[in-house]
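Summary of Year 1 activities. Much of the first year was spent building the evaluation harness for sequence design. The harness presents a backbone, in tokenized form, and records the residue chosen at every position. We chose the following record to illustrate the format because it has been used consistently in internal testing since the harness was completed.
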């Protein structure tokens, strides 16, 4: 079965094709940020992930709590390259579409991705910027080398339920590996290697996460691990 995530109308994400599902926690370390293991989740060929934030069986849809959910998709559907701004540094170009789920991986002890960009003439700084770009779950930043090579890591086909241990909130669904994302009418979003889908139900950029879960202090029905 083809791997695909279908955004259902005012309901869950229907996941097909046995896409591996894991839970991870974002934690702060002395060097920055890292992923820690979360709880083990059941693996299924087809499953429904809650999109309204109200399920009593998170991260799965419980089949009824979304009854009053208005889940209209509002995101810009143009390809990333068309939506993104080009930011130039001496060693790199960064494409930045400003789609952010506030996971903080772009903030390092040497400054943020954007603060380091003017110093990318230094190979060590350049490497840090490439790493920070690739670490962004939302796929906000993509690094391009001077010769035009897109410096994008290969990532596994997987869905990661994010728990933000530092902010003490539940975050979105981190989808990696270029999995197809489809609207209820069958139209497809441009494929992305990294993206975060809303699972609190409150994003103004549905189906993508816009970090509203932080202000709304979202916690799913299983709480934080
Ligand atoms: S989602 Fe990306 S841009 Fe936003 S804070 Fe995290 S790493 Fe930075
Ligand atoms: S989408 Fe079904 S309970 Fe949330």
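For this record, the design step produced the sequence shown next.
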């Amino acid at each position: 079965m083809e791997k695909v995530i279908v955004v259902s109308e005012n309901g869950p994400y229907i996941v097909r094709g046995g896409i591996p599902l894991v839970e991870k926690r974002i934690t702060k370390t002395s060097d920055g940020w890292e992923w820690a293991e979360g709880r083990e989740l059941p693996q299924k060929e087809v499953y429904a992930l809650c999109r309204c934030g109200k399920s009593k069986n998170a991260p799965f849809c419980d089949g009824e709590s979304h009854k009053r959910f208005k889940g209209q998709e509002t995101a810009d559907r143009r390809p990333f390259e068309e939506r993104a701004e080009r930011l130039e540094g001496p060693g790199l170009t960064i494409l930045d579409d400003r789609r952010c789920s506030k996971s903080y991986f772009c903030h390092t002890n040497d400054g943020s991705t954007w603060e380091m960009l003017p110093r990318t003439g230094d190979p060590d700084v350049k490497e840090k910027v490439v790493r920070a770009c690739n670490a962004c779950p939302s796929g906000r930043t993509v690094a391009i080398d001077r010769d035009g090579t897109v410096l994008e890591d290969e990532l596994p086909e997987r869905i990661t339920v994010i728990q933000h241990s530092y902010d003490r909130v539940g975050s979105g669904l981190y989808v990696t590996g270029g999995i197809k994302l489809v609207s209820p009418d069958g139209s497809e979003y441009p494929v992305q290697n990294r993206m975060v889908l809303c699972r609190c139900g409150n994003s103004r950029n549905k189906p993508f996460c816009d970090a509203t879960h932080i202000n709304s202090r979202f916690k799913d029905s299983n709480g934080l691990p």
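The pocket of iron/sulfur cluster (ligand 1) is lined by residues 100-106, 136-138, 140 (CB under 6 Å). Quantitative recovery figures across the full test set are reported in Table 2.
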